[in-house]
Automatic annotation (TrEMBL):
This is Trafficking protein particle complex subunit 2-like protein. Transmembrane segments: none annotated. The lineage of its organism: Eukaryota, Metazoa, Chordata, Craniata, Vertebrata. It is found in: Cytoplasm, Perinuclear region. Coiled coil: none annotated. InterPro entries: Longin-like_dom_sf (IPR011012), Sedlin (IPR006722), TRAPPC2L (IPR044760). The keyword Kinase does not apply.
Length: 109
């Protein structure tokens, strides 16, 4: 399901073309809905892709809340990447990042 969603992300990015570079809104919206899950996507200016899988039965979660969660995730990810002691490609071992992701997961459940 996630691999299929990444294909949809690639299709949306290629459809946007150069407009994506100038675009400030990086949220791609609902990528792949199924009976059990909804898959949302987000892509950064540096082409890092975030995918979020949410249970379809969770009707309390709205589109603007998903967008907000992606922005928080992006900001936290940027903080990790800006850390001079982090080597790109290594596993992220930031407590702040882990706590933020955990709090988002608790919020969704």
């Amino acid at each position: 399901m996630v691999h299929t969603s990444l294909d949809v992300v690639d299709e949306k990015i290629s459809a946007m073309g150069k407009a994506l570079v100038d675009q400030r809104e990086l949220y791609l919206g609902l990528l792949y809905p199924t009976e059990d899950y909804k898959v949302y996507g987000y892509v950064t200016n540096s082409k890092v892709k975030f995918v979020m899988v949410v249970d379809s039965s969770n009707t309390a979660l709205r589109d603007n809340e998903i967008r907000s969660m992606f922005r928080k995730l992006h900001n936290s990810y940027t903080d990790v990447m800006c850390n001079p002691f982090y080597n790109p490609g290594d596993r992220i071992q930031s407590r702040a990042f882990e706590n933020m992701v955990t709090s988002m997961m608790i919020q969704v459940c």
